Structures are given as structure tokens and as C-alpha cells.
Amino acid sequence: MTFDVAAVRADFPILAREVNGKPLVYLDNGASAQKPNVVIDAINTAYAHEYANVHRGLHYLSNVATEKYEGVRGIIARFLGASDENTIVLNSGTTEGINTVAYGWAMENMTAGDEIILSVMEHHANIVPWHFLRERMGVKLVWVDVDSNGDLDPQKVLDAMTPRTKLIAITHLSNVLGTVVDVKTICHAARERGIATMIDGSQAAVHMPVNVEDLGCDFYPITGHKLYGPSGSGAIYIRAERMAEMRPFLGGGDMIREVHKDHVIYNDAPMKFEAGTPGIVQTIGLGVALEYMMGLGMDNIAAHERTLRDYARARLDGLNWLNVQGTSADKAAIFSFTLDGAAHAHDISTVLDKKGVAVRAGQHCTGPLMDHLGLSATCRASFAMYNTEAEVDALVDALELCHKLFA
């Protein structure tokens, strides 16, 4: 099918609004994406006509809610290329997913002196849980740097492996540099050595087709609010063999089969990793968002965003006073930048906002990467499937105003 960006934009009501008297140019998609009408309508319908708690009720509304909620597990499995929907654990997003790996798998399978390999461009959500293990268990964190283009050489990751390496936790796509990492090479090499792999899919799953079984990873978390779904929704793929090595770390309803004074019997996986009343409506909305994306075609979305990336790169390269971080040939349409001179990222963002252009400013939850780059902060323009070349032009026009103000 042909990707019709105008038709896609019409599905997102917020894109028709103005900000500061200017048409909204929303380029903060790396932080959170906007929501299409089908997701908004599904949320409204769920709350207005179909809401009840799931799993434990026998009445009509509970059955309807349970059917819709549990149906999302299969949608996510299809979206991620997982052949068994029972390898999908539903949760609130990537942060919960990574903590599930840290507490449910790593604490059970690692001891003091064991090593976790990380890249320097990881998001804090894929750093802090491992620091918990470093502080509390004596686990060692091993860091691999990116090169001057922002690329992560898979061989450097493989070279960092030692007999004490138990886990590799690497992003699939950098939220700052836009770099796409060759995680397939890393995962297959790690599996040959019995090393577990946790691939942070927060950004990659939005921009490209993903097949976790082809990648060969053990864990792959995603977050719903970046996937045009509601905040508070997400999931993690866990390979069945790794799931069998895990213990639940959140206790409560639904994750148990029986509770007695002297013992409990846990539910079967994946339910035993889903404690308490879940984000029912959020998860239903996520399923609708993923169906919407798959209906457009992930290959079509990726092709449109590659065109945007190339156009934006050409326009931004023409600004010789703009410093773009991350020049990998294989990157998403994510551009982090600073301006020559003393302009702070927050000042730049404020000026852009006056022109209706929404970008992110700060460290982007990547402190080690900022230290590696020698920067305190950057601005980041992150594009989505509904963005256009005209919006790239609007960004460039706003940046030229910044240059005039701060030069």
C-alpha cells in the first residue's frame, strides 16, 4: 500500500491545533508520541461502555474487558514477531520491563563479580536497575563506548565478554543519537556463549519492523506511549527458556494460583509476572495503536521516516553553526544538536516553541552519553510517521531565528 502522510495526519486530532499562534510542529516523539482517533475512541468506549476488572469476574462486563485485554497479548506477539503469545508479559512500559529482568532474572542468576555489559548510550531506565544490582549484589558493570559517528561496533561488545559475563543490556536504537545497533549479531554471538541479552526496544519498535525471534534476544521491552498508545502501557517479550529461570518480584492478585498461611502457589507464566489490577484500558488502547501501525505497514512507516531523515539531514547539514550529535549512516530520524556559541539547549527550545516547534531539551535521561560527548545538554528533534518535509523546513526556519538571536 502507498503511505499517505496527509491521511495519517488527519487521524491525529492534536496535529490540527496551533501553539503560540503557529501551526503545531510536534518533534518530541522520542519522548512520547501523539494518539490517533482510533486509540482515543477505544479508550472512551472502554471507560464509557465496557469497563470492569479483568480475570476474576464472571459477569458480562468483566468477560468483555478480559477478552479485550487478553487479546492484546496476541497483538503484541504478532507486532514483535513472537510465535507464542505466552512469551509476552503485559506491564506499564519499558522501565517496568527492565526491572522485571533485573529482579526476576538477574537477581536469581547472577552473583557478586558477575558482569553486565552496557553501551554508553543507554537510557537511564537501562542503567539504574543494573546499578541497583551493583550496589546490592556486587555485580560489575562493563561499559562499551560508541565511535565518533555514534556507532556501536558489535565486535567491541563481543570483545568485552568474559567468563563472568552473564547479561548484555543494549539499546536497539539510541534515543539521542538515533543510531540503530546491530543487535542481531550481538544476540546470536551471546547465545552461543550462554549469555543472556536484554534489548531495549523503546525507540526501535516505533520506527522499524522488529522480529525478536530473528534477533535472537532473550528480553525485549517496549513502551506504549511511544507507540501511539496510552501512557502506562507496555510489554516485554521474554524467551520461554529465560522465563523458566525467573521468579516473580511483584506479589499480589492474579500472579498466584493459591495462597495459604504457610505457602503460596504461583500462577503460570506469563501471569505470574503480572501482579495486581493492570492498566486495563491503557493496554486495550495499546493493542489498538499497534493494529493501527500494522495496518499502515511497518515497512511503509520505516520508508517514510527514512525519507524524512534524509531530507532533515540534508537541511541541517546546511547550517554550519549547528552541531548534530550522531552521524551514523544507519540512524532513525532523530537529531540531537547544539548551536555554536553560548546558547543553552533550554533557550533554544524556548525560541523554537515560540514558533510552534516542539522539541526536547536536556540530557534525555542519558547521563553517561552526555559525559562521553562532553556536553551538559542538547536539543532533540525526533520525527514520527506523521511528520512531513514541510515540518523539517519549519524546524530549520526556527533554528535560523535562534542563530540570529544567539550568534
TrEMBL record:
Residues 25-395 form the Aminotransferase class V domain. Its EC number is 2.8.1.7. SUPFAM superfamilies: PLP-dependent transferases (SSF53383). It holds the Pfam family Aminotran_5. Keywords: Pyridoxal phosphate, Transferase. It catalyses: (sulfur carrier)-H + L-cysteine = (sulfur carrier)-SH + L-alanine. Its cofactor is pyridoxal 5'-phosphate. Belongs to the class-V pyridoxal-phosphate-dependent aminotransferase family. Csd subfamily. Catalyzes the removal of elemental sulfur atoms from cysteine to produce alanine. Seems to participate in the biosynthesis of the nitrogenase metalloclusters by providing the inorganic sulfur required for the Fe-S core formation. Catalyzes the removal of elemental sulfur and selenium atoms from L-cysteine, L-cystine, L-selenocysteine, and L-selenocystine to produce L-alanine. This is Cysteine desulfurase. It comes from Octadecabacter dasysiphoniae.
